Amino acid sequence: MLAEFTTLPLQLDAPLAGELFLLGRILFGATLAFMGLNHFMDLDTMAGYAEFKGLPAPRFSVVASGFVLVLGGLGVVVGAFPVLAAGALAAFLLVSAVTMHDFWSVDDPEEKQSEMTSFLKNVYGAGAAVALLAVGGTAWPYALGLGLL
């Protein structure tokens, strides 16, 4: 017979749990925010790559995705609108993994490996964003506490 599973509330009262959760948010969110800044600092190159990948309105897509990364990343770091921030990041990372890093359609082995690496980075990033989304409705330690819920 299987043991019965019960749902426990998120508990961050163990020693250093709140601080480690904050550190994880900083590492995750700040990295994505920095990646978003790169969208603006290297707009022409990224728009060219987006066009090469067949994205419609490549320049707009790069600017819009830059805003998602910057605002979503900062939202996770400071704990503002965590459901919106984590949800937007998860959606962006999953969509961009499939549309921009389609390693399965690349013939050149080096390019294929590079695209696969980028694809996997986006997928594990999306996993982290989904985990944050799952706890987005709870009170985060060291957070601004602004939210839609």
Could you write a compact summary of the structure shown?
This protein is mostly helical and 149 residues long. It contains five helices and no strands. Helix content is 68%, strand content 0%.
What does this protein look like?
Helices cover about 70% and strands about 0% of the residues. The chain is built from five helices and no strands. The longest helix is centred in the last third of the chain and has 26 residues, at about 110-135. The N and C termini lie far apart (about 40 Å). The model has no long low-confidence stretch (mean pLDDT about 90).
C-alpha-based Rg, rounded? 18 Å
Q: What series of H and E elements makes up the topology? A: HHHHH
Low-pLDDT sequence parts: none
Tally the helices: what do you get?
5
Largest sheet features: none
Q: What fraction of residues sit in β-strands?
A: under 5%
**DSSP, total strands:** 0
| Form type | elongated
**How would you state the average pLDDT, rounded?**
92
Report the end-to-end length measured between terminal Cα atoms.
Answer: 38 Å
Kindly state the percentage of residues in helix.
55-70%
Q: Which structural class fits the helix and strand makeup?
A: mainly alpha
Which labels suit this protein?
149 residues; single chain; 68% helix; mainly alpha
